[in-house]
Design goal:
- The protein folds into two domains: about 200 residues, NAD(P)-binding Rossmann-like Domain (Rossmann fold, 3-Layer(aba) Sandwich); about 100 residues, UDP-galactose 4-epimerase, domain 1, CATH 3.90.25.10.
- The protein is globular, with a radius of gyration of 19 Å.
- It is about 40% helix and about 20% strand.
- The structure holds nicotinamide-adenine-dinucleotide.
């Protein structure tokens, strides 16, 4: 039997992961007996299930995290994080949640003494500055934002705690997740989902970057697959290098719109107005967008097969199979 902890379980990816774990009832053939969802906000919209425990608390409190992780879960998905925009605006918040909070989880796991498997969600924002094109698996991390620096630092700690045999950790560098359901958020990448999601819902939307602006993305479905797959890989296959860049799709916004038109209609695509916002454009132009990911691919991680698949997954999973015609 497996006991599971998901930090950030009330968030976008956390809720999807928990729903999937409850549905599957097992990971790698081991039955799940309990899932603890931990978040600073009360989790909403999770299935009612006797295996699910919802705990509200702050990751930056070593006492709260110590009590929580001290219960000795077998698998920890550590997703809780302040997002990129917040970390750039509020330096203290980013370091308190993303750095100290992660150290709290690692330290509590060490004290629990049962060497849990732990997945840490890093980001391709850990890369920055002058970069080769494409970026190889071996690229050193030179982040150019506080969020990226916190993610890069935590990758090192996950690797060191694993080397010491305190946890069995794996850090996954996530591409931008598209299509994110709900409303736009504080992330500069928010438009990448909005320009698909809002037209499908019958709403007009402004795209703040040029049609040729590129993204590196993965769908919510594929990221949940990756998070679960990551925990099933034997430790010796991961080896000393505990961080992986996940395979994603590189595309321009114009290519995404062409795919949206193929899946739906010109009428849907015409709901997008192109109006560049120099502030967003500048941030986005600094992002790395092309990667080679042979290591993750060899370990069995998969990208979406096409932009159409990403759009269709949103229509099926979030819109009940149809869109505003
Ligand atoms: N969504 C993406 O495109 C993307 C891309 C790269 C990396 N990631 C990473 O994946 C993880 C999940 O992302 P998401 O999109 O679900 O984000 P999200 O913002 O929807 O969820 C993060 C959750 O963390 C919680 N949280 C924040 N501060 C906390 C604290 N002090 N204590 C406890 N919980 C706290 C939030 O309340 C939120 O529910 C994050 O680590 C994020 O950095 C996401």
């Amino acid at each position: 039997m497996m006991r599971v902890l998901v930090t950030g379980g009330a968030g976008f990816i956390g809720r999807k992961l928990i729903a999937r774990l409850l549905k599957d009832g097992q990971v790698g053939g081991t039955a799940i007996s309990k899932i603890t969802c931990f978040d600073v906000v009360a989790a909403q919209g999770l299935p009612a299930d006797e295996r699910l425990e919802i705990v509200t608390g702050d990751l930056s409190s070593p006492t709260q995290v110590g009590i929580l992780v001290g219960k000795g879960q077998d698998a920890i998905w550590h997703l809780a994080s302040a997002v990129s925009g917040e970390c750039e605006q509020d330096f203290d918040l980013g370091y308190r949640v993303n750095l100290t909070g992660t150290l709290n989880v690692l330290d509590a796991a060490r004290r629990a003494g049962n060497v849990p498997k732990m997945i840490f969600t890093s980001s391709v924002a850990a890369f920055g500055g002058p970069l080769p094109d494409p970026i190889p698996d071996s690229q050193i991390l030179t982040p150019q934002t506080s969020y990226g620096a916190q993610k890069a630092a935590c990758e090192l700690f996950v690797a060191d705690y694993s080397r010491k045999g305190m946890i069995d950790g794996r850090s996954l560098r996530l591409p931008t997740i598209v299509v994110r359901p709900g409303r736009p958020n504080a992330a500069a990448s928010s438009f990448a989902s909005s320009i698909v999601r809002e037209p499908l819902a019958g709403e007009q939307v402004v795209c703040p970057v040029a049609p040729e602006a590129k993204m590196y993305s993965l769908s919510p479905r594929r990221v949940v697959d990756a998070l679960i797959h990551a925990i099933t890989i034997p430790s010796e296959e991961i080896g000393q290098v505990r961080s992986l860049t996940l395979p994603g799709l590189t595309y321009s916004q114009a290519e995404m719109m062409a795919a949206l038109e193929r899946v739906t209609s010109k009428k849907v695509v015409d709901r997008v107005e192109w109006k560049a916002d120099p502030f967003v454009q500048k941030i986005v132009s600094g992002w790395p967008t092309t990667f080679t990911t042979p290591r993750a691919e060899k370990l069995g991680f998969e990208r979406d097969s096409s932009l159409e698949e990403m759009i269709q997954a949103h229509i099926d999973d979030e819109l009940g199979g149809s869109w505003a015609k």
